[in-house]
Design goal:
The chain is built from no helices and 24 strands. By secondary structure, the chain is mainly beta.
Length: 383
C-alpha cells in the first residue's frame, strides 16, 4: 500500500463507469472509495463521505482494472467552497502514484490546523486524463483545541513554499536585507490571526529603548508554519543592538524571541545568510523574481546567498538534488555539483540549467556545503 500524507481529504463514492473512457473496452479505474480505514493491501474497510473539521486521517482506495508499472493515478484536492466564503476552488495538494498494485491507497493525515467547513472535491486522473470530480463534506464541530505556536525561531531565510525556517540564528549581520522569524502552528482554524511585533530593545540608537519598530499579521490559512520578515529601508542597514519579536495568536502571547544585530565583520565565520531560489525576470539578467516554485519549462533555476568571514582555502560545494519526482522514478537524485574555493565575505550565485528535456515535476533541494559541512538546504518545487 502506498500512502501519501497531506492536509486535505477526499470523499466516498464508487465509480463504475468512467465517462472519460466510455469508448474503451475496459475502464482503467473500476472503483474509487473514500474510507476511514483500509486494509494492508489498500482495499476499503470503512467508507464515509462526511468528516468533522478535526478529522485525523482519511484514506482513498482506488481499485484498478489492471496493473501497469507504466501508468499512474493522480489525485488533486480542492476546497470547492467553504461555508465562510473565503475559499473557492482552492487547490490543497496533489499526488501521483504508479499503478503497480490492484489497489492504491492514498492516505491523508490532517495537519495541526482545522479544516474549514464546506464542500470539497477530489479530482481523479489516469495517465493525465481526467476521470471524475468526487465531492465530500467537512461539517460539524471540532473537539476543543487551543491554537498555539511552537518551535518559534529567528532565521536568515525560510522555505518559500511552506514557511519552515532554513536555519536557527540569534546573531545577524547589520547589512542583512531581511531578518525572519518562523513558528509552527497547532490547532488554528483557517481564519486565525497571527501577529508579530518587532521591538528595538537597546543599542546604537541613542535615547531609544524598548521601541516598537514594526508590526505585521497573517492568517493561519491551513499552513503548518507562519513566518514574518523585517528589513531596513533601501540603502540603509540595521542599527546594531538587541531586538525582540513578540508573537501572538489573536490577543494571546505565544513567544518572545530575542536576537542581536552586530557589525558584519564580527560575525563568526563561516556564516551563510539569505539563501533563496530565483529566476531571472529579464534577458539581461539584471532583475530576479524570488520564488520556490518553477514550471517544468524553466531554463534556469538560480540560487543566491551570502557568505560571511569564510576562512581562506574553504571549499564551497553547491549541490542540486531531485529529492523526489512526482512519478516516483527519481529519489535523492544528484543533478549537478558546482565547486569553488572561497574566502572572506562574498556572494554565492549558482545556476541549474535545463537540458533538452523539461525538468521532471517534483520536489528539489539545493545544498550549500563548506569544507564538507552542510550550511543550509533550500527546498524548491517544479510543477
Amino acid at each position: 500500500m502506498k500512502i501519501f500524507r497531506s492536509i486535505a481529504f477526499i470523499m466516498m463514492i464508487s465509480i463504475l463507469l468512467l465517462p472519460a473512457y466510455a469508448g474503451c473496452a475496459q475502464a482503467p479505474v473500476e472503483q474509487v472509495l473514500i474510507c476511514s480505514e483500509v486494509s494492508g493491501s489498500g482495499e476499503p474497510k470503512t467508507v464515509a463521505n462526511t468528516f468533522p473539521p478535526d478529522v485525523e486521517e482519511i484514506f482513498c482506495s482506488v481499485k484498478l482494472a489492471s496493473v501497469s508499472p507504466k501508468s499512474h493515478v493522480k489525485l488533486e484536492w480542492y476546497i470547492a467552497k467553504s461555508e465562510d466564503g473565503q475559499y473557492s476552488d482552492y487547490l490543497l495538494g496533489s499526488e501521483t502514484i504508479a499503478t503497480t498494485t490492484p489497489y492504491i491507497a492514498f492516505g491523508f493525515v490532517r495537519s495541526d490546523k482545522l479544516l474549514p467547513k464546506g464542500g470539497y472535491q477530489a479530482k481523479v486522473y489516469y495517465d493525465g486524463s481526467f476521470i471524475q470530480a468526487v465531492p465530500f463534506t467537512i461539517k460539524g464541530e471540532a473537539s476543543a483545541l487551543a491554537a498555539i505556536l511552537s518551535e518559534a525561531v529567528m532565521c536568515t531565510g525560510i522555505d518559500l513554499i511552506t514557511g519552515k525556517p532554513l536555519d536557527k540564528v540569534v546573531i545577524f549581520p547589520d547589512d542583512s536585507s531581511a531578518i525572519y522569524c518562523s513558528a509552527k502552528i497547532t490547532g488554528a482554524s483557517f481564519g486565525t490571526n497571527i501577529s508579530a511585533r518587532w521591538i528595538f530593545v537597546e543599542g546604537a540608537l541613542e535615547g531609544i529603548k524598548n521601541s516598537d519598530i514594526y508590526t505585521a499579521s497573517s492568517k493561519a490559512e491551513g499552513k503548518e508554519y507562519v513566518s514574518f520578515s523585517f528589513g531596513p529601508s533601501a540603502g540603509k542597514t540595521f542599527p546594531i543592538g538587541t531586538y525582540e519579536v513578540i508573537l501572538k495568536i489573536e490577543d494571546t502571547e505565544q513567544a518572545r524571541l530575542k536576537f542581536q544585530v552586530v557589525d558584519r565583520a564580527s560575525i563568526p565565520g563561516p556564516f551563510v545568510s539569505e539563501a533563496i531560489t530565483f529566476t531571472y525576470s529579464d534577458e539581461e539578467k539584471t532583475k530576479i523574481d524570488i520564488t520556490g516554485i518553477f514550471p517544468t519549462s524553466i531554463n534556469e533555476v538560480g540560487l543566491s546567498a551570502r557568505a560571511y568571514n569564510v576562512p581562506p582555502g574553504t571549499e564551497l560545494i553547491v549541490r542540486w538534488i531531485l529529492t523526489r519526482s512526482d512519478d516516483a522514478i527519481y529519489a535523492d537524485y544528484l543533478l549537478k555539483e558546482d565547486k569553488a574555493v572561497i574566502e572572506g565575505t562574498t556572494p554565492i550565485i549558482a545556476l541549474l540549467k535545463r537540458g533538452e528535456n523539461e525538468l521532471p515535476k517534483g520536489d528539489y533541494a539545493v545544498k550549500i556545503i563548506m569544507n564538507g559541512k552542510d550550511m543550509v538546504t533550500v527546498p524548491f518545487r517544479v510543477r
